[in-house]
Each structure stands twice: as structure tokens, then as C-alpha cells.
Amino acid sequence: MNFHILTLFPEMIMQSLGTSITGRAIDKGLISVNAINIRDFSDDKHKKVDDYPYGGGAGMVMQAEPVYKSYGYLVNHIKLSKENPADFKKPRVIYVTPQGSIFNQEMAKELSQEEDLIFLCGHYEGVDERVLNMIATDYISIGDYVLTGGELPAMVMIDAISRLIPGVLNNDISSEFESLQDNLLEYPQYTRPEIFMGQKVPEVLLTGHHAKIEAWRRKQSILRTYERRPDLLEKANLTEEEREYLTR
Ligand code: ADE
Predict the structure, then answer these.
(1) pLDDT at 155 (0 to 100)
(2) How many other CB atoms are found less than 10 A from the CB of residue 221?
(3) pLDDT tens figures, 92-150
(4) Does 23 belong to an annotated binding site?
(5) Per the annotation, does 146 bind a ligand?
(6) How far apart are CA 34 and CA 26, in angstroms?
(7) pLDDT band at residue 175, thresholds of 50, 70 and 90?
(8) Core vs surface per residue 126-143: b (16+ CB within 10 A) or e
(9) Is the pLDDT of residue 68 over 60?
(10) What is the pTM of this model?
(11) Which residues contact 47 (CB under 8 A, 6 or more apart)?
């Protein structure tokens, strides 16, 4: 899977995603991360990429032209990178914005099926609407709060998508049976020692009885979701019996 990011801060992306699990996935050739500096496509002698908003108002707006040119360059680069030209199809372009649909696990899963994805990171008060109309296919937010730019949200999404790609996590199944898969939060986890500051690991986990452990974990997941994220429970697949012990 190839991630392409149109940004004013390519070094921010490359440094962060080059670390830890995504860094290892890059080294293994499971993902690639290609950050393009929009500023390189400014024709202005000071490499300016923003200007005052028409109609007035606070802040600056990213100009259409450098964004459009960087996109054109990138699409051509992607096209040329395909061994078989028939493999080329125009990649989706995600404009990262607080005005988008809110990112979730299901979207991560869906996006992980793409071969190439382009993220456009805005700064200042946004990007000239005309270039968005021309290139953006998806508008995605990572939550109802406003950040200073689109780089962190793009990296959040790239991280969430990458870990769903086979081979990226050490254990392939671990991303399947995890938090939010069934709209339930994950059960509590424990590791050695058996007693920490007087707190003992739940007895059932020491029995080696897999069916009992599974049942305990399922119940803990449900209770935890009920306490912390009751909104998720409506979408979760619970049995009659499970619904019952929540009302008790
Ligand atoms: N840009 C600024 N804030 C953002 C957010 N919450 N999600 C996506 N992009 C953003």
C-alpha cells in the first residue's frame, strides 16, 4: 500500500512514520510513504503558497495552483511507478479537514483495500475551494476539534490503516480480534507478575481453561463498553442473555 501526502511539512510526516511499527512496515516494503512538499510547486519567487481570503476575514488561504500542480506531479509519478500501465487508476484523494466525516475503524478497513491513497493536508484557514472541487474525493476529520494542520490527522489515519495490512503487525490475527471490531471495547489485559502492589490477576486467567477465559473476556468487554462507551453498544451484536446482564 502506497501512502502519498501533499503537505507543507514533509519532514514531519517522514520522521514520525519512519519510526516504530510503521517504520518497520516501510523497511519490509509492506507500505511506502511519499511526502510531497506543496511549496516546491509555487511559482512565486518567495515560494509563497497562501494569500488573503476574498471577501475578507481572518487568516490565510492555501492557493489552488501549487496544490493542483503538486497533485498533477504526484499522479504522474504514481502512473509511471506501475509496471503495467493497465494497473493505474486515479487514486482517491482524502482532504483532511475538521469539516469531513469522522474517521473510524470501518473507514480504516475500507481504505486499507486501496493500492494508493493521497492525503491533502491543509494549513492556515483552509484550501481554495476550487482545487478541492477538482481533486478531493473524500473529506475526512479525525474528531470534533481543530488542529493547526492536516499532518497529524493524516498520520493518525495512515497509522490506523497500516496496521490492518497483512504482515504489518507481528501477529496477523491480532488486528482481527480487537477493540472496536464488534463495536465492543477490548477486555482488560494483565501480564507478570501475578500480584502487583497487592492487586491479583483475575483467577480465571490462570486456569488455562480457554472456554472460561473467552467467556470472562467477552463479559468484561461488554461491561467495559457499557461503562465507558454506551453509544457503541447499540451497534454491538449481543445475545439476549448478554443484554440481560446489563440491565441487572
Ligand atoms: N485539520 C484541523 N483539524 C482537523 C481535524 N480535527 N481533523 C482533520 N483535519 C483537521
Answers:
(1) 98
(2) 19
(3) 999 999 999 999 999 999 999 999 999 999 988 999 999 999 999 999 999 999 999 99
(4) no
(5) yes
(6) 11
(7) low
(8) bbbeebbeebbebebbbe
(9) yes
(10) 0.94
(11) 39
- Give the closest residue (by CA) to ligand 1 atom 7: 141
pLDDT in tens, 27-47: 999 999 999 999 999 999 999
Question: Residue 198 is inside which H or E element, if any?
Answer: none
Q: How far is the CA of 149 from the centre of ligand 1 (A)?
A: 7
Pocket residues: Cβ below 6 A from ligand 1: 96-98, 141-143, 145-147, 150, 153
Beta strands in the chain, from DSSP E residues, in sequence order: 2-7, 32-37, 50-51, 61-62, 92-102, 116-121, 138-141, 195-196, 199-200
User: Which ipTM value was assigned to this complex?
Assistant: 0.97
Å from CA of 2 to ligand 1 middle: 22
Write down all domains in the chain, each with its CATH number in brackets. 2-162 (3.40.1280.10), 177-247 (1.10.1270.20)
Check if the beta carbon of residue 36 is closer than 8 Å to that of residue 68: no
